[in-house]
Write a structure and sequence with these properties.
With 161 residues, the chain is of the alpha+beta class. It is built from 5 helices and 4 strands. Helix content is 35%, strand content 19%. It has a 4-stranded antiparallel β-sheet, with helices on one face. The two termini are 22 Å apart.
Length: 161
């Protein structure tokens, strides 16, 4: 069933599609901006989350501005019967910003586990890659790191009227 969005839903989506207000009480600020209550705003976000309209609310830091200028997507060829279990362990590492499983594209791309690492220099990220390798142990058959060379604009879907 397709969720029904009213005019206030659409206004809230437009008001937040570039991010939440950077204030101590963002939901209250949105309520004031849109002429409704904070409880109404929160209820709408909960409804969107429950019916799959909202995927997530998360901070998207600029790693470079924070001094993390050596960033890489680590890719791993992990035994299929262990990739979920080991992926959870890798994702739990404090230095991994995101981790996910993807299908292989053989014969050219054997990797099925991806984990993003961020460091202030190459020594930082080399240590992080080694820590991931230790978690994966002999379940890992191959690996590589795709180093970031520039910041890509991170935006999701945008709606107009």
């Amino acid at each position: 069933m397709t969720p029904v969005l009213d005019d206030l839903d659409r206004a809230l989506m437009r008001a937040t599609q570039t991010g939440l207000p950077l204030v101590s009480e963002p939901f209250r600020a949105l309520a004031e901006q849109l002429g409704t209550s904070e409880d109404d705003i929160l209820a709408r976000f909960r409804r969107w989350d429950d019916n799959g309209v909202l995927r997530r609310i998360a901070a998207v830091p600029n790693h470079y501005a924070l001094g993390y200028v050596h960033n890489g997507m680590t890719v791993w060829n992990v035994a299929d019967d262990r990739v979920d279990e080991l992926g959870e362990k890798v994702a739990a590492l404090g230095f991994v910003s995101h981790c996910y499983r993807r299908p292989r594209h053989l014969p050219d791309w054997p990797y099925n586990l991806f984990a993003m690492v961020h460091g202030r220099d190459r020594a930082d990220t080399d240590a992080q890659v080694a820590a991931i390798a230790a978690v994966l142990g002999d379940a890992c058959r191959a690996r590589d790191v795709l180093w970031s060379t520039r910041i890509l604009k991170k935006t999701g879907l945008r709606i107009s009227e």
